[in-house]
Amino acid sequence: MGMITRVRGRLRSLHTIQKLDPEMRDEKIAETVCLLSVLFLLPYCSRGHSPLLVSLGGWCVATYSFLVLPVLISANYKYPVRWLRKLFAKIPALLKKWSGPVWSFICRVYSPLDKCEKMFMKMTNLSNLATQLVFFMMCDRVLLCSLGGTNCPQKKVTGLYSLMFYNVIAYCVSYIKELIEKEDWSVTVNMTQHSNIKHVAMSATKIVLEWTKAITFIITVTFMLLVFGLEQGLEHYQPTPLYTFVTWTYYMCTEKVFIELFPPFLVFMRLKQLEALEALYAPVILRYYTVSVATILVIFLCFYGQVRFTSIAFYLTVYLRLKDMVANCLKNLRNEQALLGQFRHATNEEIENCDDVCAVCLSLMERARVTPCHHLFHASCLRQCLSASQNCPMCKREYTFVH
After folding, report:
1. I want to staple 346 with a disulfide (CB 3.0 to 4.6 A). Which of 28, 136, 138, 368 is the partner?
2. Which residues cross the membrane (predicted)?
């Protein structure tokens, strides 16, 4: 009540404010705006965990906030109180003074952890396994239990079953890929590369290893067919189509055997916009997808109150993978794009005048880059030439760029 009385007194004395000098008048208006702001913000400061306006309904809260808060922000911005002006004037100087020492202190404290993170990400198999486990646990909590509307502890093993089945599929794919790419089918090993003398011990070891892999592959496939055919021990394994799609695509984007198949797939698609940088675009696209899906699941987990697990999941599946992407594959892609960015794209008329043929590979050109000496090449051919020399492969002149 005392504050309301003060506000009324301020409003009654507005006619006296007009008689003051401009500086005093602005100061009085600023004080009045400040008191009005406090008054209108009182409904948000009621006792308990929820604002006072919640009792009137969500639409009342939204309408009140939409109408009042922008007016208060704009009024305080136009008529700031004197002490706020002084405080805001000192903030840039304080930030400039303390930003350097504080940042150096943070870097020094974070340096040991940064080394551990880099070492962990270099251990690709271990980091991928840990990331996959945490991601599948997130899918269990969000896609099966939380979105299903029931608390189902028995469904939390679905992630382990799925990861096991996906690993079996990855092993089968890698073995079939090895058989397709295999060139030497001989069961013996020569003593040297140019000798016909057989190494008995190495030949016996090779035979045992090859037969072991073949028998393991057959047993694995047979076991999987029996499990899914008889459905024994799969009472609690009930994945939804959405769960299967999300987990399977994420597993493919993080497993080595499938990652190696993605660049050839991009090459097969023949996307002209990639300019023969499929090997550099592939890991970036895969990382963007995995980080985006993990971020969405982490956001959902934040609404279910699982703070500890959410923090671990965000750190492993979002922060570390995003950091590794920026430091490695995204950095390499940007370097190559910056290198090619020095050479502009050729127009259709320029390509036609060049007989539609690249001078390096003698293949037709649909897209090309133009050198400062006005020669046209494929982007991939130009990259290969730049890796060997900074001179034009046609006229042997050194590239000179005018900015």
Report:
1. 368
2. 52-75, 159-176, 211-230, 242-266, 286-304
State the residue for tokens 């208006």: 29
Q: Which of 130, 142, 129, 121 is nearest to 246 (CA)?
A: 142
75 close to 33: Cβ distance less than 8 angstroms: yes
Closest to 247 in 3D by CA, of 312, 161, 174, 319: 161
Using CA atoms, how far residue 319 sits from 121, 311, 328, in Å, is 12, 10, 14
Please state the pTM of the whole predicted model.
Answer: 0.67
Residues 253, 247: Cα–Cα separation, whole Å:
10
Give residue-wise pLDDT tens across range 146-191: 655 444 555 567 888 888 888 888 888 888 888 888 777 776 766 6
Task: Give the whole-angstrom CA distance, residue 145 versus residue 155.
Answer: 7
Range picked from 59-63, 203-207, 222-226, 315-319 for highest mean pLDDT: 315-319
Answer left, alpha or beta for residue 81, where phi above 0 means left and psi between -120 and 50 means alpha.
beta
Give the residue among 340, 349, 353, 331 at the shortest CA–CA distance from 385.
340
Please give the structure tokens belonging to residue 400: 């000179």
**Chain length of the chain:** 403
The residue-averaged pLDDT of 293-302 equals 90
pLDDT tens column, 44-88 = 555 444 444 444 444 455 555 555 556 556 655 555 556 566 666
Residues 6 or more apart in contact with residue 201 via CB below 8 angstroms: none
Dist. CA 101–CA 89, nearest whole Å: 21
Contact 341, 401 (CB under 8 A): no
**Contact 197/191 with Cβ under 8 angstroms?**
yes
pLDDT of 134: 92
Given pLDDT bands bounded at 50, 70 and 90, which one contains residue 37? low
Six token digits for residue 168: 């079996």
pLDDT given at position 254: 92
